[in-house]
Amino acid sequence: MAVMNYLTPCIFDFGAVAQLPKVLKTLNISRPFVVTDPGLKANGLLDKLIAALGEAPAGVFADTPANPTEAAARRAAVDYRAAKADGIVALGGGSSMDLAKALGLMVTHEGPFERLGGTVRGARFITKIPPLVAVPTTAGTGSEVSVGAVVILDNGRKETFVSPFLIPTQAICDPELTLGLPPMLTAATGMDAMTHCIEAVLSVVVHPPAEAIGLDGAERAWKWLPVAVADGSNRDARWHMMMASFQGALAFVKGLGVVHSLSHALGRVQELKLHHGTLNAVILPHSLAMIAGHAEEKFARIRRALDLASDADLAAAISDLNKRIGLPSSLSQMGVTEAHWPTAREYAISDIATAANAIPFDGEKFDELFKRAF
Amino acid sequence: MAVMNYLTPCIFDFGAVAQLPKVLKTLNISRPFVVTDPGLKANGLLDKLIAALGEAPAGVFADTPANPTEAAARRAAVDYRAAKADGIVALGGGSSMDLAKALGLMVTHEGPFERLGGTVRGARFITKIPPLVAVPTTAGTGSEVSVGAVVILDNGRKETFVSPFLIPTQAICDPELTLGLPPMLTAATGMDAMTHCIEAVLSVVVHPPAEAIGLDGAERAWKWLPVAVADGSNRDARWHMMMASFQGALAFVKGLGVVHSLSHALGRVQELKLHHGTLNAVILPHSLAMIAGHAEEKFARIRRALDLASDADLAAAISDLNKRIGLPSSLSQMGVTEAHWPTAREYAISDIATAANAIPFDGEKFDELFKRAF
User: Fold this and answer.
1) Residue among A1, A211, A247 minimizing CB distance to B208
2) What distances in angstroms separate CA A177 from CA A198, B239, B338, one per listed residue?
3) How many domains, chain A?
4) Which pLDDT does position A3 carry in this prediction?
5) Which chain B residues contact residue A246 at CB under 8 A?
6) What is the CATH number of the domain that holds A132?
7) pLDDT tens digits, residue range A147-174?
């Protein structure tokens, strides 16, 4: 059992979810409130969690939407208060974990929810939320260790909430919970982890420990993601992909880059409902092609980590990986049209991830990236 | 400026010490008490720190011995209380930082000091100490981020104190402060960092993020330590060695190995007063020679990090590094005799680092290690 303690304490191994009662006791949570989604209620993972708890939780909110909304968090907050809960257990992918963070904010912070958002520098108003135990069931977002939560506001805007207070109090990473993840979701979430690792390594922020973790995570995902997609029951592959996801989020404390800026921008197009990991996967090779030649040393280190030839084309290698694991190769294949671009363009330019990108990116550069990925 | 936040928040760069007033304000320290040693008082670094403070600290204890003692910590605690101080600034190498931790324990914990020691499982009695800002002036121990402190008790025993509460509240790593470190001390402390990185990677504990950081730190020390020793004024080399030291301590959350066990054991021989880093440097190649063949995958990763041939003899490479940076090649050269062995042997076997070693080590194995290193 790996016990890791950078940013958030994490218990990591097959069967780790059995440690939940002990963890709750340590955190003085006697009335846990579980946040999850309908899929995990249907496929038995919620039952598995409740069995691990040993007794019924104080309450359960199993209606997390695919993209968490302010409205859903508000309903969960009503239930949380009614249950007289004293802590949160988030079971799921990034959506459940982000909804749990939003719920945590709502039950501890007065005033309009949106004033806490990143675009209005709301971090300065964010203080302690109830103790939050994150139990991821996908391997990609790394939300179990990250400072962020993405929520669609009542006004339709997708807002990012960022604060050290949003880092879960404890993470329980049990790869067993990912064994049933279908190949497409394994591939898409896995490429989210890969993108976190690679963009974090390339970001201009200086943070050698995070960079080392990112390189290791990229090496791990490169080796094990095709295995996990080809054979979801491969326990080694599931272990390593959950680790790569965890490492990706540890790495991105040093920032991300324009893949995420563009991915966030297109992810806001409500009628398309695009998967964040798939977007990252499709855009990543094109960002790499544009950065190539401007970050030689880091490209060399990434090539070495991926065991590629010293003159290998990194962008082509990632494109090839996408193909091998069955992901689309263009935004147009995903339903994006040129009509979506003007709005997304403005958002991408102002996205927080743009500032940390390996090379400066303005509107024209984003035009080129969009065109390449289109 | 790198701002890193695994285990302890760290501000890292040339000139970082100028951030001290801001850091103290954030930590609500209005009456800082400075712990340092006579060398740093003599060479002007204490003056530099006080200049950065902008005003006189509430008190200064500049009598830290080369190996911190319970008696010295007690005297510092008296001064701390008399100064009505509300926080500690440790300026120095491992000794000043460890003494500061001991002082912190003394002013907050009742009863005999030794009951808090690791050998009597004292960690369970250790709670919060005053806020502690660590400002390292050597690059090796990594005590600015570590959970431990080593103190010679009144009864003559060398005791290790370990608790998450002993991790400094904040680290300020300013490579500028190491520019004047003489070549021998640069070499010896640098090999302490190198040993932390390599033993942490090889330890049996599973912690991939720490392992990745250890590999990166080893790569960094391998490249930059000879440069720092040859030219102490090389700022890049000083930056990277301070980073390797920081990374070594982040890495050894996953444990160390028998190099440290033997080094601790021989470091307790009072009449020899051996330098911990030099001991590590001398012993490391011999531990590697004994582990070789039993940890192939990790050896391969270390070779790759050090840019060695895939069939290179890692032990010989480290021996050669020691030679290049002017360190001794045997314990006997350092004054150790066979008469020192029986007592040291018992200590080494029971040292906490032994349990995490890459391969199990009993008395006979330690006999062999001692003989090889002798």
Assistant:
1) A247
2) 25, 43, 56
3) 2
4) 66
5) 209
6) 3.40.50.1970
7) 889 999 998 888 889 999 999 999 999 9
Has the ipTM of the complex gone over 0.90? yes
If we measure between CA atoms, which residue out of A209, A217, A200 comes closest to residue A252?
A: A200
pTM for this structure?
0.94
Same domain as A107, residue A60? yes
Residue type, B68: P
A193/A314 same-domain check:
yes
A9, A161, B27, B212 from B215: Cα distances, Å: 22, 34, 33, 5
Instruction: List beta partners, residue B35.
Output: B61, B90
Q: What is the mean pLDDT of residues A42-64?
A: 96
**How far apart, in Å, are the Cα atoms of B234 and each of A213, A349, B146, B181, B227?**
27, 39, 27, 12, 7
State residue A15 phi and psi, 5-degree precision: 85, 5
- Mean predicted lDDT score pLDDT of chain B: 95
Considering only CB atoms, A4 lies closest to which of B209, B220, B246, namely B209
- The verdict on A23 and A170 lying in the same domain is yes
Give yes or no: residues B140 and B288 share one domain.
no
DSSP string, A111-122: S-GGGGSGGGTG
Q: Test B210 with A253 for CB contact under 8 angstroms.
A: no
Short-list A130, A207, A363, CA closest to B11 = A207
- Residue closest to B142 by CA, chosen among B12, B331, B34: B12
Do A123 and A260 belong to one domain? no
Kindly list the distances between the CA atom of residue B23 and the CA atoms of A6, B26, B135, B191, in Å, as whole numbers in the listed order. Answer: 21, 5, 12, 30
Clarify whether residues A154 and A269 are in a common domain: no
What proportion of chain A, given as a percentage, has pLDDT over 90? 90
Q: What is the CATH number of the domain that holds A339?
A: 1.20.1090.10
Name the more confident of B160 and A323.
A323
Nearest CA in chain A to B254: A4
- Inform me whether the C-beta atom of residue A243 falls under 8 Å from chain B C-beta atoms: yes
Domain that holds residue A81: 2-176
Most A CBs within 10 Å: which of B14, B162, B216, B297, as the mutation test of the A interface? B216
Query: CA torsion, points B290, B295, B298, B301, in degrees to nearest 10?
Result: 80
pLDDT digits (tens, 9 = 90+) for A59-107: 999 999 988 999 999 999 999 999 999 999 999 999 999 999 999 999 9
Going from the C-alpha of A162 to that of each of A113, A124, A180, A352, B78, the distances in angstroms are 13, 10, 31, 11, 43
Query: Residue A116 has what pLDDT?
Result: 96
**Would an 8 Å CB–CB cutoff place A297 in contact with chain B?**
no
* Sign, Cα dihedral of B294, B296, B298, B299: positive
In this complex, do A206 and B6 lie within 8 Å of one another by their Cβ atoms?
no
With H, G, I as helix, E, B as strand and everything else as coil, classify residue A32. Answer: strand
Average pLDDT, chain A: 95
- Measured CA to CA in angstroms, residue A25 lies from A20, A29, A30 at distances of 9, 6, 7
Answer for the pair A39, B245: CB distance below 8 angstroms, yes or no: no
> What are the helix and strand counts (H, E) for chain B?
14, 9
Domain boundary among B143, B176, B209: B176
Q: How do residues B233-284 score in pLDDT, each as one tens digit?
A: 999 999 999 999 999 999 999 999 999 999 999 988 888 889 999 999 999 9
Angle at A249 between CA A245 and CA A250, to 5 degrees: 115
**DSSP per residue over B212-258, as a string?**
HHHHHHHHHHHHHHHHHHH-TT-HHHHHHHHHHHHHHHHHGGG---H
Number of other CB atoms surrounding residue A243 within 10 Å: 25
* Per-position b or e across B210-226, b if 16+ CB within 10 A of its CB: bbbbbbbbbbbbbbbbb
